[in-house]
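We emphasize that the prediction below concerns an isolated chain of 132 residues; any contacts that depend on oligomerization or on bound cofactors are therefore not represented. The input was used exactly as deposited, without trimming of termini.
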Amino acid sequence: MSLIDRAFSIHDDAMILRSRRTSILAANIANADTPNYKARDLDFQSMMKSIQVDRQDHLTMARTSDRHMAPSQSLPENGIKYRNPLQASLDGNTVDMHAEQARFSQNAFEYQTSLTMLNSKIRGMLYAIKGQ
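Result of the prediction step, given as a token string:
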């Protein structure tokens, strides 16, 4: 893993997960009136830990044969879970619109924070390269 990969990896991973969570939360909001729709969410903390552990494991792994499996670069699926509703709906839908909108807004804010951090790192590297 190069220095640039190490510098950006956590922010890159966070933005990918936040983007994925945005899609999941948007699907929940879009299906708020769909009978029997089960709200899902992404466990951001556990997935970030899983990705970081996975990256550390991959740093020490070496393929000594073409028959060995290559390390996976995909995101783990185990962090996506169905949400238990606070109040049951008569039609079986588990989406709480107010809670989903709050989660969506919080996730958008956290995505923007990750983007700001990534931009800050890039600016710092540009200043270092230019010698300013």
